[in-house]
Design brief:
alpha/beta; TIM Barrel; 8-stranded parallel β-sheet; 3-stranded antiparallel β-sheet; binds (4S)-2,6-dioxohexahydropyrimidine-4-carboxylic acid; binds zinc ion
């Protein structure tokens, strides 16, 4: 097969940032994707429905002319999140999900949750109204090895939380481990996003033969057996797994430094890279489920009407995009991506 037309995809986990970076990165997502769940970890974070409304306005204003891209807004869960504000934001159609960042887990997570008990009123209300919780699934305790932080989170945070708040719908964001995949498979109401980069990276890619800051993200890529489990889950057709690119732009100055930020900027290459991976797995016929159907079904939203055509032709992506804050390196998997979006 050298041409594939699928229903227009959605990105169920995306960082658009703000200001000059927002203006530069947004067209890279709105070109291929109809909708995206927009992460709230700005500085300061998107805490309230009013914050989300204002941020949504800035996203809409930055959209290329004529674009029909729809940003789906999220709130950043804190120990002080007001359940009434969450419910009102959801009722007006503004808030599609709430995001849990364990405090200190990643970029701009300092206001995240330390004591889950304090977030219970908001979580209980979310369970009542069916509003999903998107979870950054890593513990932050310094004594836990960074490669174990997802698996430990499932056992010590997520499972107890789901017992305390029955009916809470949870998306395990950017799942990176075989343990995460099997947790999703064995628990109803739990879905997971998978990134494009975690389908092609293992931890050797980051560290062997030189340190590659543009492959560093959180959760960090794990061993090869975990990458394989992710490919298996993404290409299986199982409706619990759907695309969330976690495209996370940082300017090069913040990546190529002695303490570099976590994040891979994959938006410009995400769909071609997925086609490449799915073809290698003999699963091109399941790309549409992963990228265009499963997520909408999980969120109870209609599927998109439009289409996206991919063609087998080597991708010639720009190495960097220019932003008003400096260049941002585009994710390069280290091989030629065999597919591109048809012009
Ligand atoms: O690699 C990451 N980058 N992981 C996250 O969880 C946050 C993101 C960011 O905002 O840069
Ligand atoms: Zn993210």
């Amino acid at each position: 097969m050298d041409r594939l037309t699928i229903r227009r995809p959605d990105d169920w986990h995306l960082h658009l940032r703000d200001g000059a970076v927002l203006a530069a990165v947004l067209p890279e997502s709105s070109r291929d994707f109809a909708r995206a769940i927009v992460m709230p970890n700005l500085a300061p974070p998107v805490l309230t429905a009013a914050d989300a409304r204002a941020y949504r306005g800035r996203v809409m204003a930055a959209l290329p002319e004529g674009s029909e891209f729809e940003p789906l807004m999220t709130l950043y869960l804190t120990e002080g999140t007001d359940p009434d504000d969450v419910a009102a934001g959801h009722a007006e159609g503004l808030v599609t999900a709430v995001k849990l960042y364990p405090a200190g887990a990643t970029t701009n997570s300092a206001s995240g949750v330390r004591d889950m008990d304090k977030a219970l009123p908001a979580l209980e209300r979310m369970a009542e109204i069916g509003l999903p919780l998107c979870v950054h699934g890593e513990v932050t305790a310094p004594e836990v090895d960074i490669f174990d932080r997802e698996a430990v989170f499932l056992e010590t945070v997520l499972d107890p939380l789901r017992r305390r708040v029955p009916g809470l719908r949870v998306v395990l964001e950017h799942v990176t481990t075989a343990e995460g995949v099997s947790y999703v498979r064995s628990n109803d109401g739990v879905g997971a996003t998978i990134t494009a980069h975690h389908l092609v990276l293992n931890r050797n890619h980051i560290l062997a033969g030189g340190i590659r800051p543009h492959y560093y993200c959180l959760p960090v890529a794990k061993r090869e057996k975990h990458r394989r489990a992710l490919v298996e889950a993404a290409t299986s057709g199982d409706g619990d797994f759907f695309l969330g690119t976690d495209s996370a732009p940082h300017v090069d100055a913040a990546k190529e430094t002695s303490c570099g930020c976590a994040g891979c900027f994959t938006a410009p290459v995400a769909m071609p890279l997925l086609a490449h991976v799915f073809e290698e797995a003999g699963a091109l016929d399941r790309l549409e489920a992963f990228a265009s159907s499963n997520g909408a079904a999980y969120y109870g939203l209609p599927r998109n009407d439009g289409a996206l055509t991919l063609e087998k032709s080597p991708l010639d992506a720009p190495p960097k995009i220019v932003t008003g804050d400096g260049p941002v390196t585009v994710f390069d998997p280290g091989f030629t991506i065999a597919w591109r979006v048809a012009p």
